[in-house]
Amino acid sequence: MKRRDFLYSLPGAVAGLSVGIPVVFAEIPTGDTGIRIDQPFHGAVLHRRSAAPVFGVVEDSDGKPITLRIKVSGEAPVDSPVTVNGVECRRNGKNFEAEIELRQKTNRIVVKSQSSSGEVRESQATVLWLKNSFPRYRFTVDDTIFCLREIHRNGYKSLFDDDFLGNLRKLHRKYGTKFALNLFYETSGDKDYLTVEREHFDLSDFSDRYKSEWQDNADWLRLLFHAKREHPGEPYKDASADTLIGDFVELEREVKRFAGEETYLPATVIHFGTIRPETYKPLAAHGVTALSGYFIKRQDGSHYVNYQMDAPRSDYLSEHDFLLDVDSGIVFSRMAMVLNLVPLQDVVPTLEKTIADPNTAEFIDLMTHEQYFWPFYKNYIPDHWDRLDRAFAFLTDRGYKPVFLNDPPLGLDENL
Fold first, then answer.
1. What is the C-alpha separation between 72 and 39, in angstroms, rounded?
2. pLDDT digits (tens), the chain, 416 positions
3. Are the C-beta atoms of 198 and 190 separated by less than 8 Å?
4. Which of 90, 138, 325, 385 holds its CA 20 to 30 A away from the CA of 337?
5. Is-contact 194 376, C-beta < 8 A?
6. 41, HSE (Cβ side, Cα atoms, 13 Å)
7. Distance set, CA 413 to CA 126, 351, 357 (Å)
C-alpha cells in the first residue's frame, strides 16, 4: 500500500473523539470566547509526513499534492453548533472535531459557534502547509571567527588553504553538504581557552582579496550574523532591539565588503538563543526568516536556547521541526543535534531516533561550534570531523538533501 493510500484510509478510523493525542492549547487569544482549539497548534508548520493533526493528502494524477487533509479539534459551549471554516463539526459534549482541507501556504482556521440567543463566538489559529516538502538537512557552525583570523594571520593564497575551510570543502565535495557559518564580529577573551597566543581580530581586518573566491563558492558556503563577540554569554538577553540590530548591521556590512552580497545570509542562530521577543519583528525587518534553537526543558520547567519564547510554544518546539511566530513571520526550528556535544558512537543512534518520529523526521537541523575543530583550543575534539562525516553519510544514505535554512525560506523552493 502506498503511503498516500494508507493516509486516505485513516479518516474512518479517526471519525470518533477517542484519538489519544496530547491536548495543547493553541488558540489565538481573542478574549474569553468559550472556544478552545487544541489541534492544530497555532503556528504549526505541516507537511505530508506530519503526525496529528494531519491524516491525508490529496494528489493529482501526477502525484502532486493538491490539498492537505487535517483534523481540527477542541472544546466549545455544549449548547452551540460549531463550524470550522464553514464545515459543521461533530460534537461529543464540549468536544468538537471536523476534517478540513488546506490549499494555501498560509491557512487561517476559523472556529465559530452560535448560541441559542444568536451570539456568535469565534477563535482562530494559523498554520503553514509545506506543500512541496522533502527530507532535507541543514548544517551550521556557531561561534565562527578563528578560521578568518588564521587566514588573515597567514596570508593564504586561497581560503581553502585554511584547514577548517579546506575540510569543509572536502565534506561538501563528498556529500554536497551546504555550510552556514555563524560569525562573531570580533574575538574576545579567548586567551584562557587557547594553548597558543593569538592577537585580537575583527572582521574589519579581513581582506577583500578573497571576495571572488567567496562568491564562487556561495552555492554551498554562506556567512551569517551570530553576535558581536563570544563573551560575555547571553549578550542579548536583556539588550534592546537597537543594540541587537546595530551589531547585526555592522557584521552584515563587513561580510558584504569582503565576501560579496552572494555570500551573506541573515542570521539563523543568535548567540545563546536568548533575545527579547520584542526583537523578533526588527530582525524580520532585516531579512531574518528563520531562527534555530534547542528548546530543551530544564528540571525547573524553564527552557534553554529558546529565544525567551513562552513555555507552551517551547514545549511544542521541543517535539516538532518548526513553529511559525505569526506576529513576526519568523519560523523557529528545533536543533536535532549539536555535534560537539554528541560522542561519535552516539551520532547515528541520535539521528535514528530523530527520523523515527514523523514530527521531527522531515527536516534535520544540525549544528556544531567552530572552536572544537582547532588543536590550539584547550577543549579541542580530535574526532570532531569524524562526527560530521558520520552524520552526513547517514543522512545522505537515507535520501536527505542538504539545504540552507533561510535561502529560500525553510530550505524549500519558493513554491511551498
1. 5
2. 333 333 333 232 222 232 222 333 344 444 467 899 999 999 999 999 999 999 999 998 988 899 999 999 999 998 889 999 999 999 999 999 999 999 999 999 999 998 777 788 999 999 999 998 999 999 999 999 999 999 999 999 999 999 999 999 999 999 999 999 999 999 987 888 999 989 999 999 999 999 999 999 999 999 999 999 999 999 999 999 999 999 999 999 999 999 999 999 999 999 999 999 999 999 999 999 999 999 999 999 899 999 999 999 999 999 999 999 999 999 999 999 999 999 999 999 999 999 999 999 999 999 999 999 999 999 999 999 999 999 999 999 999 999 999 877 787 766 55
3. yes
4. 325
5. yes
6. 24
7. 21, 25, 24
